[in-house]
Amino acid sequence: MAGLAKNLVTAGLAKLGLVTLGGMLGAGKTTLVKEILRALGYQGLVKSPTFTLAEPYQFGQYSIMHLDLYRLEDPQEIEFLGYREWFSGNKLVLIEWPEKAPGFLPDPDLNVMIQIQKNKRQILLESGTATGKLLLEQLTT
């Protein structure tokens, strides 16, 4: 995960607006977020937002919001969390379990799907915007 995080950061991940992370419980979504924050230079404690739903990180030139929507029971609950503010300003938003809020989230710049097959992780990256496509092109050059 650390290698992927460093490659994503080098390719320009911090310039994106929304990155969604999918995969079953225990696949490594939060671990990847922790590695991304470390690759960006964050030195503090990185907490899972499973119970708080949102963890903001402000350091250096970065403003990052890490969200975990797993506990949402109704997609409309996202309205009460102030989700519109997540996408205002120059922020990188990392969302685990985006499928819990269908119709509320914009198209992600990058979707990261983590699958576990035969005790190995397989990572699938998919761009949802032109900016995400540029990032994926940077990864492959």
Key structural traits:
141 residues; alpha/beta; Rossmann fold; 6-stranded mixed sheet; 5 helices; 28% helix; 28% strand
Describe the fold and architecture.
- The protein has 141 residues and is an alpha/beta fold.
- The chain has a single domain, classed as P-loop containing nucleotide triphosphate hydrolases (Rossmann fold, 3-Layer(aba) Sandwich).
- The chain has five helices and six strands; from the N terminus they run αβαββααβββα.
- The protein has a six-stranded mixed sheet with strand order 2-3-4-1-5-6.
- The chain is globular.
Can I get a quick summary?
The chain is of the alpha/beta class. It has helices at 2-11, 29-39, 77-80, 83-86, 130-140; strands at 18-22, 54-59, 62-68, 92-96, 110-117, 120-127.
Content of β-strand: 25-35%
Order of helices and strands: HEHEEHHEEEH
Return the average pLDDT rounded to an integer.
86
Q: How many separate helices?
A: 5
Shape, principal axes of CA atoms: globular
Reconstruct the topology from this structure:
Blueprint: H1 2-11, E1 18-22, H2 29-39, E2 54-59, E3 62-68, H3 77-80, H4 83-86, E4 92-96, E5 110-117, E6 120-127, H5 130-140
Helix pairs in contact: 1-2, 1-5
